[in-house]
């Protein structure tokens, strides 16, 4: 299978070469002048949020995978200096990133130099960086001096490294207040959010300081911002701040809002400085794929549903907050949503509404738990290796319903929804111009039908699974779609000479090295788990831990309930193996039955051998 999609990467390199070529006439070019420019965000873009990934790992993933995936942008966690985890009541947490101490680009995710290198590396691969920025507030402080991750001193209402003192905050004295009534606009935008010190963004010096931080990020090469807690700042303040910036960054505001609520602050207030994240869209995904509303109604989703206009909408099924907040039951998520979650993601990426953002993070045993660290509670976040699937990183962005649909969206760019089909219940399909077609079946049984497309006749690969689809001369194809399954085909993934060309393998394997005495084995096991459990393969070989749980090979859940991984084993060797589930506290659950057996092929084989199993209860 070809894993090369050269268009965007080649364009980035060509752009850099064009600048360099121009320099032959104009004079010597600096290194910065020949760097590839990251793409701007458009309605056809695809964002992947790599939550709590460190900068070096993101740079590596751009090189290893994302540059050829179809994703155009990465949303990264807040890059500024933050509090120390040891200064919190729950040191193992993720939310210290959202408590700024200064605007220095030095955090447990990496240094300024590493951040700059990441931005440049990803831009060279045709992928732009969108930074999550926390500008509504500073960290919850203490009357005594504390220190941030990079060593900056701070106290409550006093952050010298950022240039703030008590005069830069709301309600610091006897008028101190915390938000308790979200129907009170003044309180929401002037009191402190769960003890986080609320900046007076109406003041010119505060606006200038925030704008300087944002401009610094733009100068580094960031192309956009997700603004945390925007609803807690008046829209006019944000328009003033973003109006001070040079360049034209993409901006999306976090304005948590639900239709029918009596909250006075609404998304439309923020259109003057950017787009708005659509929390109602995420709720609709749960209602229609896992709730009582028909999934086929989603064929008509849009502004008429009370959502923002298409060009003002940023949509998601899950973000970093949704499964960890008090209203998690309103949303689908990777850990509990199962096939409903995957179908919702496929729909979002295929449909022509807003700019979609998908999510890739780590598994956790409680909603505060932070990512893997290299050492103690104040140490840096550990590296991510999606090829090895180490630690608790899920790497779900490499799965078919993620990367496969990013490739779909790239192929159908600039086209409109057409050729709608539905069964009046929970199965529906639609095309994107003459470039692609998707069918989603949220029924409890399979659905067979003939679908009409505007695609050229030919044989196409189903990027959401196995098999191919043949489109006839009249643009039709007949298919059976299994329960809770989907089909997606597009012109960028034709089936040619027995292979899927121009696609990214959604579950890539390491390239085998024939003749070295080893072979690669793809491991796939269908195993349902409860919250926090992980799945491993163990066995009689050293590479499988010789039945020692602490040394077994971890499998990834990017295509849950199928857990996948790739192991390198001795060639022409018969071995025994089993699967185990490991709970967050370390408790083991072995599958039942006798040991499984398998014999690896000769090392002359140029493709990986495969294990396809189902957990035995």
Please supply descriptive tags for the structure shown above.
single chain; 617 residues; alpha/beta; TIM Barrel; Immunoglobulin-like; 3 domains; 8-stranded parallel barrel; 5-stranded antiparallel beta sheet; 9 helices; 31 strands; 18% helix; globular; disordered N terminus; alpha-amylase activity
Description:
Helix 5 crosses helix 6. The strands form nine sheets. An eight-stranded parallel beta barrel has the order 1-2-3-8-9-10-11-12, surrounded by four helices. The longest helix is centred in the N-terminal third of the chain and has 20 residues, at 7-26. The protein has three domains: 38-138 and 202-411, Glycosidases (TIM Barrel, Alpha-Beta Barrel), CATH 3.20.20; 417-500, Golgi alpha-mannosidase II (Immunoglobulin-like); 518-614, Sandwich (Immunoglobulin-like). It is of the alpha/beta class. It contains nine helices and 31 strands. Mean pLDDT is 90; it is low at 1-7, 13-34 and 506-515.
């Amino acid at each position: 299978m070809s894993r090369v999609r050269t268009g965007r990467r080649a364009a980035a390199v060509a752009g850099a070469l064009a600048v360099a070529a121009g320099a032959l006439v104009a004079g010597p070019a600096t290194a910065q002048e020949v760097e590839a420019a990251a793409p701007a965000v458009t309605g056809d873009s695809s964002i992947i949020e790599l939550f709590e990934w460190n900068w070096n790992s993101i740079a590596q993933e751009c090189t290893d995978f994302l540059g050829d995936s179809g994703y155009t942008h990465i949303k990264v966690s807040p890059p500024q200096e933050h509090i120390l985890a040891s200064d919190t009541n729950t040191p193992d947490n993720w939310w210290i990133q959202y408590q700024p101490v200064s605007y220095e680009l030095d955090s447990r995710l990496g240094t300024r130099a590493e951040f700059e290198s990441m931005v440049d590396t990803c831009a060279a691969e045709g992928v732009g960086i969108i930074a999550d920025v926390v500008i509504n507030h500073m960290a919850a402080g203490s009357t005594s001096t504390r220190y941030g991750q990079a060593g900056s001193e701070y106290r409550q209402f006093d952050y010298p490294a950022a240039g703030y003192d008590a005069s830069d905050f709301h309600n610091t004295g006897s008028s101190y207040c915390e938000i308790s009534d979200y129907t009170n606009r003044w309180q929401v935008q002037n009191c402190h959010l769960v003890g986080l010190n609320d900046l007076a963004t109406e003041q010119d010096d505060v606006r200038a300081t925030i704008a300087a931080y944002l401009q610094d990020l733009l100068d580094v090469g960031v192309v956009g911002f997700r603004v945390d807690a925007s609803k807690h700042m008046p829209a006019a303040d944000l328009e003033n701040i973003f109006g001070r910036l040079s360049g034209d960054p993409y901006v999306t505001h976090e304005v948590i809002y639900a239709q029918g609520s009596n909250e006075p602050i609404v998304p439309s207030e923020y259109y003057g400085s950017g787009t708005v994240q659509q929390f109602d869209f995420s709720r609709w995904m749960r209602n229609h794929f896992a709730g009582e509303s028909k999934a086929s109604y989603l064929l008509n989703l849009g502004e008429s549903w009370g959502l923002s206009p298409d060009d003002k909408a940023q949509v998601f099924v899950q973000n970093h907050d949704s499964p960890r907040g008090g209203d998690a039951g309103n949303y689908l998520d990777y850990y509990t949503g199962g096939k409903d979650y995957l179908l919702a993601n496929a729909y979002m990426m295929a449909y022509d509404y807003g700019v979609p953002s998908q999510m890739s993070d780590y598994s956790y045993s409680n909603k505060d738990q932070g990512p893997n660290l290299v050492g103690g509670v104040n140490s840096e976040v550990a590296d991510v290796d999606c090829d090895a699937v180490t630690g608790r990183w899920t790497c779900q962005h490499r799965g078919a319903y993620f990367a496969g649909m990013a490739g779909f969206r790239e192929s159908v760019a600039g086209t409109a929804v057409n050729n709608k089909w539905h069964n009046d219940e929970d199965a529906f399909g639609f095309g994107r111009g003459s470039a692609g077609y998707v069918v989603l079946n949220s029924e409890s049984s399979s659905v067979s039908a003939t679908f009409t497309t505007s695609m050229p006749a030919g044989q196409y690969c189903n990027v959401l699974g196995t098999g191919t689809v043949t489109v006839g001369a009249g643009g039709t194809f007949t298919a059976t779609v299994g329960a809770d399954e989907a089909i997606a085909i597009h012109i960028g993934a034709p089936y040619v000479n027995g292979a899927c060309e121009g696609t990214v393998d959604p579950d890539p394997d390491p390239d085998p090295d024939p003749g070295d005495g080893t072979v690669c084995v793809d491991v796939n096991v269908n195993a349902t788990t409860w919250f926090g459990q992980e799945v491993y393969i163990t066995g009689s070989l050293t590479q499988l831990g010789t039945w020692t749980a602490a040394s077994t090979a971890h499998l990834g859940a990017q295509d849950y309930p199928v857990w996948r991984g790739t192991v390198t084993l001795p060639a022409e060797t018969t071995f025994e193996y089993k699967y185990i589930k490991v709970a967050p506290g370390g408790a083991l659950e072995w599958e039942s039955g006798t040991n499984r057996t398998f014999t690896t092929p000769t090392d002359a084989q140029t493709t990986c051998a495969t294990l396809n199993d189902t957990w035995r209860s």
